[in-house]
Write a structure and sequence with these properties.
The chain is built from eight helices and eleven strands. A nine-stranded mixed sheet has the order 1-2-4-3-5-6-9-11-10, sandwiched between helices. A two-stranded antiparallel sheet has the order 7-8. A hairpin with a 2-residue loop joins strand 7 and strand 8. The chain is globular. One of its GO terms (molecular function) is hydrolase activity. Keywords: Hydrolase. Pfam families: Abhydrolase_3 (PF07859). InterPro entries: AB_hydrolase_3, AB_hydrolase_fold, GDXG_lipolytic_enzyme.
Length: 416
């Protein structure tokens, strides 16, 4: 990512000349470094792992988190969806009873990742929803990866598959699935959170989706990674273990991810690339006015992690949408102290949680903010155990359960 002086980056949108906010062409040596890193991780490590996972889950059926249905569509036959159903729909025609549906998008810096990564989360969400008396269908989506397929390929892959699933007049839509097309939300993790907000801005998709739930999303390609990691990111050495480290583990990969996804010459403030700039807050004679809320579905629930270099941009978007005071790119989120109770969220402290309703003409918009305390990027993923920190895993899994319950409750409380 281009080195942009922090002074020219403001809280309302990209400032300064257009040239400052255009993706640069990197030196050949840097391109070779990033290209080799991307190739090594994707082809030599991730592809074999995905193949092993596919054999175990889709062919041998050895995982309790397996999807109930795997289905491909003509628009993108190489990108099948993974469908998770409640027990109430097992052993019967799944299309008989329509269910509120959550579409999920995996992360991985636009380069790595697969829908398998979230099988555990998707299955658990379905279980908790059914236990709570509101059965859900969850469908994991896929998209082609950078650097072979840079921005905006992934957005349009998702658009095509979502239309196949939801568009009533499409001969390819998922009418054999229990999707209540009038009650659909979309969620995503990290890069998937970015893509959830991006695809939901498209005129073809926005009317079909009632809510968006971006979880620790990357939202700002304008602000340099160094600023995010050293200024707005909260560090807590007192936690010890992996969470107590003094650098963010994403920094080692952020340059490669950015180079892979964003081609030289691309305007980095494009709202489809950097959704935080889809909404602006302007000073007028009547006071501050928020513009751009209509670009997203009417309901947005932004979730961030306190110990994450991407937390600041999530905070900024939530505050813009919710009409709160918008922090600067160097404002540090959260608090200095370690939370008193392991595995617990902070729901009474506005730094960590709030929700508001906004009336705009005939449209009622609802926004929610949740900052997961003492949590790193990806705290809720099944693979977080690779960091070798048992306290991180146990704390994260407890918080994951609570976050899932809050998401379900919010969606069913008048959103869907």
């Amino acid at each position: 990512m281009a080195a942009i002086p922090a002074a020219v980056v403001d809280t309302a949108g990209p400032a300064g000349s257009e040239e400052i906010h255009v993706a640069p062409s990197l030196p050949l040596t840097q391109k070779l470094k990033y290209g080799a890193l991307a190739y090594g991780i994707t082809k030599l490590i991730k592809t074999p792992l995905n193949l092993i996972t596919a054999i175990k889950t889709d062919y041998l059926g050895s995982s309790p988190t397996n999807p109930d249905i795997i289905k491909a569509f003509p628009s993108r036959p190489q990108l099948p969806v993974r469908v998770f159903l409640p027990k109430s729909h097992s052993g019967e025609d799944p299309s008989d009873k329509k269910l509120p549906t959550l579409l999920t998008i995996h992360g991985g810096g636009f380069v790595l990742g697969s829908p398998y990564d979230n099988d555990g989360w998707n299955r658990r969400f379905v279980q908790l929803a059914e236990e709570g008396g509101t059965p859900f269908c969850v469908i994991a989506l896929d998209y082609r990866k950078a650097p072979s397929y840079p921005f905006p390929t992934a957005i349009h892959d998702l658009e095509a598959v979502i239309l196949d699933l939801l568009k009533p007049d499409s001969s390819n839509h998922g009418d054999d699935l229990p999707i209540d097309v009038n009650r659909v939300a979309i969620a995503g993790w990290s890069a998937g959170g970015n893509l959830a907000l991006a695809v939901s801005q498209l005129p073809t998709i926005r009317p079909l989706v009632k809510a968006v739930v971006p979880m620790y999303p990357v939202l700002d390609f304008v602000t340099p990674s160094e600023v995010k990691a050293t200024k707005s990111r909260r560090y807590k050495p007192a936690l010890g273990g992996f969470r107590g480290k003094k650098t963010d583990f994403l920094m080692g990969l952020s340059g490669m991810f950015d180079w892979s996804y964003v081609e030289p010459g691309q305007k980095m403030g494009d709202p489809l690339l950097s959704p935080v700039y889809a909404v602006t807050v302007e000073d007028t004679a009547e006071g501050k006015v928020t513009k751009g809320r209509e670009k997203f579905p009417a309901n947005v629930f932004v979730i961030a992690c306190e110990l994450d270099m991407l937390g600041g941009e999530a905070w900024r978007l939530a505050c813009k949408l919710g009409g709160k005071k918008v922090p600067g790119v160097e404002d540090r989120l959260g608090r200095e102290e370690v939370g008193e109770e392991k595995g617990k969220l902070e729901l009474e402290d506005e730094r960590f949680h709030w929700q508001v309703a906004v009336e705009e003409g005939q449209v009622k918009r609802r926004y929610m903010w949740l900052l997961v305390p003492d949590a790193i990027h990806g705290y809720d993923q099944d693979g977080v155990g690779r960091f070798g920190d048992e306290e991180l895993v146990s704390d994260g899994m407890e918080k994951r359960e609570e976050v899932m319950k809050i998401i379900r409750g919010w969606l069913m409380d008048g959103v869907l």
